[in-house]
Design goal:
This protein has 498 residues and is α/β, with parallel strands linked by helices. 30% of the residues lie in helices and 20% in strands. The protein has 13 helices and 19 strands. The strands form three sheets. Strands 1, 2, 3, 4, 13, 14, 15, 17, 18 and 19 form a ten-stranded mixed sheet that branches. The chain has a seven-stranded mixed sheet with strand order 7-6-5-8-10-9-11, sandwiched between helices. The chain has a two-stranded antiparallel ribbon with strand order 12-16. A hairpin with a 3-residue loop joins strand 14 and strand 15. Helix 4 crosses helix 9. The chain is globular and about 70 Å long. The N and C termini lie far apart (69 Å).
């Protein structure tokens, strides 16, 4: 009996010893392996950009093979009341380029870990209450249809109402109520609180229809309306939050005339110190009431062919109110290559003339065959990094990213002082006799001379952007000439960076 009991005790002891050994081995290996696995996982994460298949490049309008490089960007939220003109980053933006053809399913040889950039994460437009602004525009059916993707980008889901006076053409001003109803329903389905209306007077020309918007909008006001905003069909507001904040600095209980003058001195001399319509005209209700009370007199007294000028004339003729100019509301009265504007580091409240056929360039190095500025895609990156659209970062090797417009390389270098002055890439200025203003001093300040593309400046222009799970993917293109390959650089902005 004692022997049997001893055997039992021995067996229990051996079982406990074996169990202790197994537990020790388990925790020893599990404590060692995670450290090794973490290192492997970290390396794997850094290598992931190289492992990604490049089939997405097939959707780009480029000829393969191409030179290609890419980089991931993590956004660090950093609240700042003012955005710097340029932020210096002491590292390279891209790894070395390599030749790729997505049909051959290449693996990238040159990769870099994600880049961390700071940006101000102001609220997205969906969380901004702009119900105190009543917007209005006058346009044609075909132009309105073209504008809808852009209006959706900045106006949808903001609680701001938009009233549109719309006709088929100057020759056919009869209301097409069926088409108006269909288009209105489509816009509302997209989250745009739009109401399409016929002209107040079918005999009104373009200028009078524009002027009549003040009367129309004033009649549509409600108890929450503080501002009437009159815009063109190619006006674009990059940040509704910034626009609402700007208007909040003015007392809407007083007569207020807020807007932007032209950047070009020639236009200011011709039209005067008025709010130019493409930049956005904002009238407080007390001032709008002054125009409505003198509506018929102002219509008869003015012979101007410009609606925004008729508004100015009525205000000046029947009140003591004068324009409160806002430099960040941009009329963009410039033609040709607008790189100097979009690469300036400005933080615009409004942009205009994106429908102008100004993308096609004489210089084949930067020609992208496109009719309009694709602002609705250029601006997608704001979904990830807030107020970062057109923000500038300067990287090692004198690379400058103007977010959503271009990546520019300066092979001979560029100074901070030079970056502080916009490059005069656009056409103009038009000559004004007997003036001390050479063209843009009143609005832009001093400018610097245009740089020679391909020599002093290598420019990768915005090609496309896609909203994907986790972030926004951007592509920038430098066109090859005389047998050279196109070069595409890609940035992926992660929605939740660390």
């Amino acid at each position: 009996m004692i022997l049997s009991r001893n055997r039992i005790i021995t067996l229990v002891f051996l079982f406990l010893a074996a169990s202790a050994l197994l537990v020790h081995l388990y925790f020893w290996t599990s404590s060692a392996l995670p450290r090794e696995n973490v290192a492997i996982e970290e390396n794997k994460q850094q290598e992931d950009p190289c492992r990604q298949r490049l089939g997405r490049l097939r959707n780009l309008n480029v000829k393969f093979p191409i030179k290609y490089a890419r980089r991931d960007i993590n956004v660090r939220p950093q609240y700042r009341p003012h955005r710097p003109s340029t932020t210096k980053i002491d590292e390279s933006l891209f790894p070395k380029v390599q030749i790729v053809d997505p049909a051959k399913d290449p693996i990238l040889e040159h990769c870099m870990p994600p880049l961390s950039l700071e940006a101000s994460p102001f609220p997205k437009k969906e969380s901004v209450d702009a119900s105190n602004i009543l917007f209005g525009m006058s346009t044609l059916f075909n132009r309105l249809e073209d504008s809808i993707p852009y209006l959706e980008r900045w106006l949808a889901h903001t609680d701001a109402n938009l009233f549109v006076i719309v006709i088929t053409s100057e020759e056919d001003r009869k209301p097409d109520r069926k088409k108006m109803s269909t288009l209105q329903s489509h816009m509302r389905d997209l989250g745009i609180k739009a109401t399409l209306v016929e002209p107040l007077d079918l005999k009104d020309d373009m200028a009078l229809r524009y002027f009549s918007l003040v009367k129309l909008l004033y009649g549509k006001r409600d108890k929450g309306t503080q501002w009437i905003g009159i815009i063109d069909d190619d006006t674009f507001f990059p940040s509704m939050h910034a626009l609402v904040s700007m208007l909040a600095t003015y007392d809407p209980r007083l007569p207020q005339y807020v807007g932007g003058i032209s950047e070009e001195w020639w236009s200011v001399v011709l039209y005067g110190l008025m709010a130019f319509g493409g930049a956005g005209i904002f009238l407080s209700l007390p001032l709008a009431n002054v125009i409505v009370e003198n509506y018929h007199t102002c219509r008869e007294q003015s012979g101007s062919s410009a609606g925004d000028m008729r508004i100015m004339e009525c205000i000046q003729g029947h009140s003591q109110v004068r324009l409160s100019p806002v430099p960040a509301l941009h009329q963009i009265d410039m033609g040709g290559d607008l790189s100097g504007v979009y690469e300036s580091g400005w933080r615009p409240l409004s942009l205009h003339h994106w429908k102008a056929d100004w993308w096609n360039r004489d210089d084949k190095r930067r020609a992208i065959e496109r009719d309009w500025f694709p602002l609705q895609r250029m601006h997608l990156v704001a979904d990830v990094c807030g107020e970062c659209f057109l923000q500038r970062w300067r990287f090692r090797g004198d690379y400058v990213l103007s977010n959503g417009y271009s990546v520019a390389e300066y092979p001979n270098g560029i100074t901070d002082e030079e970056l502080g002055r916009p490059e005069l890439t656009w056409d103009g200025p038009r000559h004004v006799p007997d003036t001390f203003n050479p063209g843009y001093v009143h609005s832009i300040g001093t400018v610097r001379e245009r740089m020679r593309l391909g020599e002093e400046k290598i420019q990768y222009l915005f090609l496309d952007a896609v909203l994907e799970t986790g972030g926004v993917r951007q592509f920038y293109l430098n066109k090859g000439v005389e047998g050279e390959m196109d070069t595409v650089v890609e940035l992926f902005w992660w929605e939740k960076g660390g």
